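Continuing the series of single-chain predictions for the mutant panel. This is the parent chain; the variants come on the following pages.
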Amino acid sequence: MRTYLLNSTCAGIMGALMVGLSCAPLAQGADVVKEVIKLLKADVGEAVVLAYIEKEGAPARLDADAIVDLRKAGATERVILALLGGAGGLAAGEGGYPFDLDDKHSVKRPVMYGAMAIYPIVRKGPVIKDEYLTLDEAVRQKTITIREKGDGSVPVVIVINHGRLPIYISAGEIIIGGKQDRVVAYDVIIRPGREMPIEVRCVEHGRWNGGSMHFDAAPAMAGRATKMAAQFESQQAVWDRVAEQNTALQAESSTGSYKASISKPEVEAAYKECAAAILPSLKDHNTVGMVVALNGRVHAIEIFASPGLFERLKEKLLKGYLLDAIAEGSRTLTPPGPEAIKTFYAETLHSRAEELKNYEINRNIRRESEKARASECLDATGDVLHRSILAK
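Parent structure:
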């Protein structure tokens, strides 16, 4: 079986490994790692190893291969953290964190899991409350029905809100059942008492049947490539992206379903490790989103209007991007810095806005830069409820 990015020898570094590479690059960095491995094999004890690293200094860069070798030699989390530069002990603001993303948001120091870096985004100023139910909440409260349109239509399903609160469904939500599994193409708000057709794309190429015409919510959202294809490309592109992901994850499915990747036992195990490492950093009461980086590049930026909405969607988003990380594999642990993130964000936000999809009380617009495509969901007042920027 393919060696996952998130197996125990590479990415199982439990806890919040707050990445901050050494400010004093050393030419002998590789030699430091080699000497640490010798000490570990000699079983001299963690205290001696840490004292050696403190004396010699952390290497300027610690790549995935080095971490694999260190883990095989018995390196603890504290040892690896020390070799990463001891960022867990850095004061706020040191190394450029936190930094302002725009006039409403700042970005905190990243937390690493393997070659994936997650940077919490916090809203500056008072917390905004929302009065939406998410898809999962509506399903649990039995205030939503999602069913096929008539005898079935690939690009459309019907959503009925039986409750007293509006339901917000994010682009990238996977719904399972009906005649074939689908991914929601665009953000949508369904008012109480309303029945609405919403646009979807198929993520299960080989099935058009089933005993039920109704759908349930999946435990993860679509990753970057599938979500981008659903919003900006074609149905064939969605099928292609799903097939590529299933192949990369060796997730067998007779119908080519996205569900095969989500439900793979190894993915579930990896997510538990990833969640333990990442989620504690996303608990700040003002956290409204996250920057996702893979292998040293900005992969996606997700920002919501309220901390409450992000709090209820963050785990599904994280699992979707974890699938991307596993499929992409691990090449480097050096995350992008503040300037790279700010440039990626600003270039996209300064690009021309175009209509993407309008619903009854919300509209979706698109933006595109050289490096990314973005969608923004605007609520009835014209405020941005959700901004999603995906790297090309």
